[in-house]
Amino acid sequence: MALCFLTAGWKTDGANANAVGKSDDGFINGILGVIVDHGLREESNEEAHIVSSRVTEMGILSNSDLLLCHVFELVTSVLTQTSFRNQM
Predict the structure, then answer these.
(1) Helix (H) or strand (E) holding 78
(2) Confidence at residue 19, expressed as pLDDT on a 0 to 100 scale
(3) Could you count the other beta carbons within 10 Å of the beta carbon of residue 8?
(4) Taking the chain, what is the end-to-end CA distance rounded to the nearest angstrom?
(5) pLDDT at residue 23 in the model
(6) 3-state secondary structure at position 1
(7) Contacts of the segment 24-28: beta carbons below 8 A, 24+ positions apart
(8) Contact assessment for residue 33 and residue 11, using Cβ atoms and an 8 Å cutoff
(9) Structure pTM?
């Protein structure tokens, strides 16, 4: 959220304001917010949707389908592969 806020301000204030502009649908040109639901906590999905709404209100286009990252499965897979390689 902080990076979105700072980037939106940088793109729309000062010398950049006239060059950047907004697209026909009202979003700031040149910024795309990517929101990931890491799934580590039960409430993470709701938080990701809140972030998506807030980023949209800032005028930043974001991914409409939240990316779901299966962190636990990913870490388990990496650890399993590392353990297997160390046994060879």
Answers:
(1) helix 71-87
(2) 66
(3) 18
(4) 44
(5) 78
(6) coil
(7) 25/61, 26/59, 27/59, 27/60, 27/61, 28/59, 28/60, 28/61
(8) no
(9) 0.65
